[in-house]
């Protein structure tokens, strides 16, 4: 085998994120939709029942989109998705973390509440492309009774959190529109890890009627969503001073919603508390604590450089990110002896 094989779903933000990255790298990849027909092969390869799953030409199997991208980036460093500046690199990782962990919850909240019936039908038909009407109906019932309760628990989808979700989507769409108004990509004229992570979630939102209507009012975001389907290196990353101004609204959104949520979850997960509460821009938020999200935040904090370009340090400070990041670093440091997230 000389080509890569990517098992995924057009309904999965992490699958399309990795596919876009591989297109950018020019890696020969065959897209393998996970359907009833391919399920047996997928199950024989997967260590976890999660998409995407990438099979290398030598047969090596990889899962979890971010570690896969980082591994491929080491192997295929050009064209690079990280700026040389360590501060900019960290900002890119921070945005991607916010997308993967909080953006995915926004996607789920709108997809499975506002547009539940349509999303159930679309998902079932993707899994059973040749299914009969009865088989599609049975698959819809299976998803609704077995998958959705878990999604609701993990994402924190409940009536009391609706205001926080709606305010967060409003803030994200406005921040993205400002960031992309005069730029091809978030960090200049080539996509970064931040673009791939955030695009994967937002392009999925565009598929759904409710979130899609909100995004339709942001033309710069719509152009970026189209561009990221087959992204190309069109130049260089912008300098830190320019990026500070452009990404200010997006980092402020992260400080208002993602980081308070992530820290509250981290504290609960590391101390064994089953639930947590957080105060976000749109109001209170409560959910079950998630250990994976706490571990992911720990990895991000571990990548935070000691010395940061003054413009990037100021960006993190003036948007309110620094207090949250410092609190997370201090919390993890206190658990470094014999404790894990």
TrEMBL record:
One of its GO terms (molecular function) is transferase activity. Residues 129-249 form the GST C-terminal domain. Keywords: Transferase. This is Glutathione S-transferase. It comes from Tropicimonas isoalkanivorans.
